[in-house]
Protein: AAA family ATPase
Organism: Blautia faecicola
Amino acid sequence: MTDQTAYLNLVLEKLNERIVKLNLSLQEGAKEVEDMHEYYWENYTEMDQYGYEDYDNQQALLNQLNTNQQQMHLKHRFQKMLDSPFFGRVDFCYDGEDEAESFYIGIGNFAERTGQTPLVYDWRAPVSGLFYDFDRGEAWYEAPGGRMDGEIVSKWQYKIKNGKMVYAFESDVKIDDDILKAELGANGDVQLKNIVRTIQKEQNAIIRNTSDRILVIQGAAGSGKTSVALHRIAYLLYHDRKNLKSSNILILSPNGVFSDYISHILPELGEENIQEMSFDLFAYRELKDVAPDCEDRYDMIERNLVHPKERGRYWEKQSPDFLNQMEGYLMELEDSLMDIRDFTYRNYEIKASRILTLFYTRFLEIPLLSRMDAVREYVVDDYETLAGRDLNEEEQQYFYDQFMAMYETRDIYVLYSRFLESIGMRPLPRVWYEKRMLRYEDVYPVLYLKYRLVQPAKRAGVKHLVIDEMQDYTPMQYQILAMLFPCKMTILGDKAQTMDEKQQDVLKFLPGILGKKLRKIVMNKSYRNTVEIAKYAAELAGITDLELFERHGKPVVEEVFWKPEKAVEKIAEHLRVQPDGYETAAVLTMTDQEAWELAKALKERLGEDSVTYMNKDSSRFKKGITVTTFYLAKGLEFDQVFTVWGRQPEDALIRQAKYICATRALHELYMYQIASGEKQV
Ligand SMILES: Nc1ncnc2c1ncn2[C@@H]1O[C@H](COP(=O)(O)OP(=O)(O)OP(=O)(O)O)[C@@H](O)[C@H]1O
């Protein structure tokens, strides 16, 4: 038996022992909780009148529940580790020592007993940095007590499955390319995988960065941005357990399918899952008092595909110019919106001039539509002091109505519409609240206007915001995010994957919004696609600075068909999904209508259950064949991709869409155009 197998067996034995002990202690813990409940029910009527004993009991119960929960958490981690307790090892000789020490690295720390030297170190532990950052030779790591220097004598990589050693080999260079190639060459999972075994040096630098408040990652398609961002979260949680809980992290993700796709990484890394939200859904919720309905982003994209002339309007309304005009309008409103009058109630009187002073001097800092309420509160106080009594409910309402009547209107829909008119744009339709529907291009301008007029609630619980697909957010949206989340941020995306005709590089304007101190990192190396696919896609987008990971596959197939049925035939012919082939395949179209039609045709051919049609309301990414649009496939990956287009004239937006589709493919890419011209193919 080799050393490593012996060590593996030792770790497995100790893991099993600890699991048995944890089980016992969990049973005792559960009994303890039960006893506490029983004691409480039997005795609570006799507990002292001030509730001290009652309080003590509740605290004890809470502590016990916490302990039980922590133990459960540990047990889950150890059970997971039984499958593969470690994946790497570094033999490190500290300066001044004669013998090297072996550090085994796995998804979590494991020691025989709490407090003892770990048998396995968490991949996020300081010493594990050696594994990712250095080759054999001189090396160092930053320990809590300071920098530790020494020499890496050897480095090992292991594959262990079901508790059995599949392979073990010594690698003297960086995380070995062969292992990475094997990982990348495997079939795509239905969910994004964790990459702890093969994190690359430049990725590790981002994951372990704790010093920058705002980190912006511009990364090529497939460079591992999403993976790195999630591992970074796991790293930050591990290193700042006291101040940072998973509930303090919020990830802004494009849609439900994407959230599902990334949802298991953190639990797999031993962390709880984090809150996730689509900024659009948040905005729609926040605007419920302005309009009951808002157009969906994806509906706008569809509209833009069919009516190219309308495309510019969206960007016009999100531009810094438009925002400046709105700021000018807000200044004007300060005066034009107000109709400040004397206020009297019984013998009490407060002159307009006094209200004006309060409004424009004392409470000037408060946003305009919240400000009069502050004045009202002040006056109510004044009245109550003079009258020597509190106002009753009816009187409170009277005060409120009178002060609110000093605004000419408080309807943000009306105000926004007037603003549009004032700058020569078409106003919003004049309809009752129930009939209002905001177009997507107006959603964020209205939200911005709202937050400038009414104090937004700060999301204080959020200490770290992750923004994925950063190129899809406009300057206006970043302004709003900066107002709502004055916290640390990890922002990631790819300027080449904008869902619009022109690419957007947010790095041009982000420092102006979030401050100059943001740190930007560029990741040019693509890991997802084969060289053939990556080169093909880069050419589509005019990218020249892409670094490729050397993994080869089939050449990209381009074909033109006269009829969609012919394309369906070819897709069916080339599909190689389970049981004997790939895990996932996608047929990607430009519009939802096309996706629906192709899904129908494929279902007729291959059977209803073997094809999943995915639209904007879907929330799951499933194994097998998925038919959907390019904009919903963003961020996802598939073993095989068939891109089908041709109904719309080939313009800049369609080229962007084709690029997004092409970069989704791991192993095989087929680009099928349905010809709409004369020539028959
Ligand atoms: N170090 C790594 N080891 C193994 N696999 C990796 C590594 N880095 C990236 N990958 C793989 O590359 C693929 C792309 O990763 P990911 O989805 O995180 O990239 P991305 O930059 O967010 O892509 P996109 O912007 O195109 O959606 C995934 O399959 C991921 O597992």
Notes: Residues 201-285+456-526 form a domain with the Rossmann fold fold (CATH 3.40.50.300). The chain has five domains: 1-83, 86-173, 201-285+456-526, 314-451, 531-674. The chain has 24 helices and 24 strands.
